[in-house]
Every structure is written in structure tokens, then in C-alpha cells.
Amino acid sequence: MLSYVLKRLLWTIPTLFGVTLLVFSMVHLTPGDPAAAILGDKANARSVADLRAKMGLDKPLYQQYFIYINHLAHGDFGRSANSNEEVMTEFLDRFPATVELSLVAMLIAVFFGIGAGIISAVKRYSIFDYGSMFGALAGVSMPVFWLGLMLIYFFSVKLGWLPVSGRLGYEFDIEHVTGLYLVDSLIAHDYAAFWDALKHLILPAIALGTIPMAIIARMTRSSMIEVMKEEYIKTARAKGCTRFQVIFIHALRNAMMPVITVIGLMLGSLFAGAILTETTFSWPGIGKWLVNAVYQRDFAIIQSTTLIIAIVFIIINFIVDLLYAFINPKIRLS
Amino acid sequence: MEPFFEFIKQYRKNRAAVFGFFIALALVIMAIFAPWIAPYLPADQHLADRLIPPMWDAGGSAAHLLGTDDFGRDLFSRIIYGSRISLMVGAISVGVSLSFGLVMGITAAYFGGKVDLFIMRIVDIMLAIPAILLAIVIVSILGPSLYSAMTAIGIVGIPTYARIVRASVLAEREKEYVIASRINGSSNLRLMFAVILPNCASPIIVQATMGFASAVLEAAGLSFLGLGAQPPTPEWGAMLSDSLQFITTAPWMIFYPGLAIFLTVLGFNLMGDGLMDVLDPKLKEKG
Fold this sequence. Notes:
The complex is a heterodimer.
Chain A lengths: L1 H28 L4 H6 L5 H11 L5 H13 L13 H36 L4 H15 L2 H15 L22 H7 L3 H38 L2 H8 L4 H39 L4 H10 L3 H29 L1 H5 L1
Chain B lengths: L1 H11 L2 H18 L1 H4 L37 H37 L1 H16 L2 H12 L3 H28 L2 H8 L4 H9 L4 H24 L11 H7 L9 H28 L1 H5 L2
Helix pairs in contact in B: 2-4, 2-12, 4-5, 4-7, 4-10, 5-7, 6-7, 7-10, 8-9, 10-11, 10-12, 11-12
């Protein structure tokens, strides 16, 4: 197992290297001079040259790359060209909002996805099966931002049940501990704030959770159907287990393996899917911040966010692979 | 013709796939005959007729089936013309992904060894960044426009195709007909593209159909973020993002363009699902 872990860990190095190279070359692939772009049309040649020197753009490319890597290794992700704040500080301010949204979306997706998948598999070819599988296909085809807007229209505009956008009402102020409002409000025993944060969270989380839910439902169904054909299920039935025991104790545990892999892999892409959801709901996370950075051509933010998310993605993939190898000996031995 | 009729017979068994085919067909007809179907030009502004609701709502008029937007442009006409953009986005993005992915996948699998290792490393690096994020990075390099979005989505799709092509070429490479053709003196290029490739067509066709759906979805997403098609282009995602402020006063401006995206993507996904049933049943079983 240890040799598998080490081998798998070594494989991430070239990938990480490639991602930094890609992110580094971004600025240089962009047409025009980055320094001139930051200073605008009215800048004179001298100030452009000064800024170029300050940014290290006057050095050869390979030196610039090593300087960049050296900065990264020291945790220096650069400064935003617009706010002049440290990118890492701004990132960490917004990251908890995205994490909270993604986690709640994933919870919804896992709970309803697995539930629908099990019922479909057990009651195969029933109306529920056809309905939920069509629903799952529709879910995969759903534009997240449109679903979000429809939810806002029905639940916020028409019915007035839930807030239209944002993360918390102005009247509330939650002390920052974890950055996750649901957790922080509970720590402070501020239940009114918890309720308000939950109400703000519910629609974006449903919108973001729809695609993973659809994928999980389809995966659970096909995996359950496969497992239910196995001999040991027949044995369990023959020895007199109840239907409930057969489904939830014997079948589900074995059917979950491919589903867990998919859940792990989707967690990474969920952070990215949050970009559209956050824009729809004015959710103050990294997605909205990133899109604004693209409008303003703030490359330090785009580069760092891409790099950080890619690293998170690589780590999650790594953990999923390990879990998978841990559960399934065939993989680590091959 | 026999295999073709057999294919049609099998495909027809899947009702949802037939439904998907008709959606796709409707889309193609809409795109080709847009000037005859649409009552107005997509950019025609009638400022006197601003924000008219759909025909069946109170205050609607028969002159504007799905109502008008804040510039008095006919929503129905804009959606019809929008189908041209969606079809173009799907075709060009899939074209880019497919052509690069095909060459990369087939080269990796055919030559194996270091070539394979090198190409698959590039693929891994591209897959390390979530698709829409990579697309945003590419758009930020090229500058926001419909063409940047298409290029970005095309590039982002390359690794998926490369992997699928590689896997199926690997399965075919050592088969007897390939070896026979090699003994007969076929060149590498001939073996790769004329002998092996046609036998790998099924999974590629399925992926291209599904890829078309996701390209349309991603392009709409980028345009919604303001990073794709720019106003006044009647692109469905861009139409949505222009209408955000009218969600309380003119919800139809949001409802119908989104429905058009949803149906298009659903149609191609259903078609892909049906093709998978017929062409590649083994793939389906894997989930």
C-alpha cells in the first residue's frame, strides 16, 4: 500500500508542474504588454518601463518562471492589480462562502441522489423509476444559472418565501470563526442568524446540487442493479433476511463504491460549478470574484485562483484514488 | 443498407432517444429556415412595444408570440435566430475537441511507450483544472467573445476525446486484422486512420453527441457570465444575463431563452443515450 501511495504521490508532481507552467504562461500568451494594460492608455513610456521592471517582466522568461515558483513556494500569490490587496487574503475572505455553498449542495445531492437511485433500482421499470431517471437526465441537461433564476422567480419573487440573493440579511452580524455562517451562528447561539443564513443558502444549494444529484442517482441505480444480481444477495434472501436488510445492509454497502468515487471527483468540479451559481445569486464567494477579475483583467487573481483550485482538485483526486485502492485491493496490486 | 435499417430499428426502441432526435431535427430546421420562421429580425427594435408579455398572458399581443424585451425586440425571433449560434457553437467546439483529441489519442495508443506517456501527461494536466475554470482562463487570455468561448470550450474538451480514442485504439491495436494489414505492408498512417480508426467509431460518435450537448451548455454559461457572445447577439445565455434585472417585471425574458437551452441540451443528451444503447451497449452497462 505504501509503495502505491508513494508512486501515486510522485505522479502528482509533473501535473502540478504543468499547471504552474500553464498558469505562468497565461500572462505571456495574452496579446499586449501586461504592464501597459494595467496602467491604461494614458501611461507614458517611462512609467510602463518602471512597472515592467517592478513586475520582473524585463528578465528572460525562464528567470521569470523561477521567480514565480519561488514566490509561490513562499506562499506569495501576488497582489490584485485593482485593489492592491494580497490575493491570498482576498481569496481566504471569500473561500468559506464557496465551501459552505458547495458542501450543502453536495449534501442535498448525495441524500436525494442516492435515495432516488435506490428506489429506482428496487422498483425497476416502475413509474417512479422512469420518472426519476428522466428527471436525472433532465438534471444533467439543466443550465444551472437558469434553474437558479427559475427558483428565484418562484420562491422569492412569486411566493416571497426566501431571499432573492446574498448570504445574510443586513441586520445580522456573525462573529467570524470558521467562515461558514451556519456553523458560526450556531457557535454564537444566534439562532435567528442561523435561520436567516439557511434561508439564503437553500436556493443556491439546490441549483448547484442538481447536476451532481442527477449523476449520483444514475450511478446508484446502475450500481445497485448490478449488485442485486449477485449470488450473496440470493443467499441473504434465502436465509430469510427482510427486504430492508437485503437492500440497506447487504446490497447498498457494496453498491456504494463507484458512487463514492464519483462523489469525490465531483466535489472538485462543484467548486467550479459554483461560479455560475454564485453569479446568479450574488453569492459572495470566489466564483463571482473570479468573474469580476476576468472583466478587469486582474491576472494575479485569475492565476492564483486557477492554481489553488487545481491544487485542491489534485489533492481530492489523490485522496479518492487512495480510498479506492484501500477499498479495492485489485487496484493497488496491479 | 441492411445494417442501417437494423440501426434504425434498434434506435427506435428507445422512445426518449427518438424524442431527442426530433428536438435536434427541429433545431436544425429552425437554424436553416430562421428568416422564414421568425417574424422579425433578431436586432429589430420597436421601442413603442417594449416589455410586452407573451401572447397568452394579459396584455400580450398576437404580433409577438413570446413577448418582447426591454428594447422592444421580438423574443420568439431572437430565440429562433439563437438556434444558429447554438448549432455553430456545438459544431465548432466539438470539431476542435474531436480533431485534436483524435490525433492525440490515436498517436498515444498506436506508438505507446514514451509518446503515450508524454501525451497522457498533457491530458492529465488539462484534466487537473475543472472544465469551466479552464475555459474562463482561456477566455481571459483571448478576451471575451463568442469565438473565444467556442475555442475555449473546444480546447477544454480535448482530453476527454483523447482518452476515449486512446482506450478504444488500445483495444483494437493487437487484433488480427490489424496485424494482417501490417504484414501486407500498410504504413503507420494508413494503419492508424484507415484500418484501426473506423473500428473505434462507436464510442467516438456517442461522445461527440453528448459533447455537443455540453458544449452548448458551457457556451451558454460563459455568455451568461458575460464572457461569451456579446450584446446584441441573440445568444440564449447572453439573453438571460441581459434580462436579470427584469426578473420581477418581465419573467418571460428569462423563462423562454433558458427553456431553449434546456431543450437543446436535453435533446442531444437523449440522442447520445440512445446511440450508446445501439452502438456501444457495453459502455452503457458500466453506468
